[in-house]
Each structure stands twice: as structure tokens, then as C-alpha cells.
Amino acid sequence: MNSDQEAILFRLLDSYSRAHCDSFLAEMFMNSSKTEYNLCFRPTKARSDSSNLYDCRYLKVSANEASLASQKGELSQPIIQILQRDLLGHGS
Fold first, then answer.
1. Is the pTM here over 0.85, yes or no?
2. Tens-of-pLDDT digits for all 92 residues of the chain?
């Protein structure tokens, strides 16, 4: 994917995680073998004195799924399932 497609994917993931999982996408990068994107999510509602203020959840999405989401301009069900499974409750 080119940088424009990666920007679309970043916005899709960040928007979804903020709206549905009380998290935001802090980092997104391709792994060294170029088969997956590593995603770092942080909680949006952590208090400044909270022990989980800098908590981070790393998730992986296949490069194929990522490319498809960017091209369609929407997250696929497999990506949504990953986000909901691994992020719900993370922001609490």
C-alpha cells in the first residue's frame, strides 16, 4: 500500500476504535516480512493519575485485509471482530 492508502486505513481504524472501543490508534506499521500491520491502541478515557494511562494493546491485521479496507473505504468484518474482541474494555 502507498502512504495515501495507509492514511485511509489509519483513519478508518482510529475512527472505529474511538467510536466503539474507547481507544485510539497511536501507531501503525508494517512488520518486517510485509505480511501484517502492527497496530498500537491506547485508551481514550484513562485518567491522568491512572495506572493504565500509557497502556497499549498491540494487534495485528493482515496486509491483505488492510489493503482491502483501504480500497473499499470501510473496515471488513474480520477487522471489526479483532478490534471488538481485543479492545472492548481496554479504555475503561
1. yes
2. 899 999 999 999 999 999 999 999 999 999 999 999 999 999 887 666 666 667 889 999 999 999 999 999 999 999 999 999 999 865 54
**Cα–Cα distance list, 48 to 32, 43, 51, 72, 80 (Å):** 34, 11, 8, 37, 28
- Dig out the grid coordinates for 29 from the structure: 506499521
C-alpha cell belonging to residue 87: 479492545
69-89 b/e (C-beta count within 10 Å ≥ 16 → b): bbeeeebeeebeebbeebbee
CA distance 65 to 36: 9
Please name the residue that has the C-alpha cell 481485543: 86
Domain boundaries, the chain: 3-87
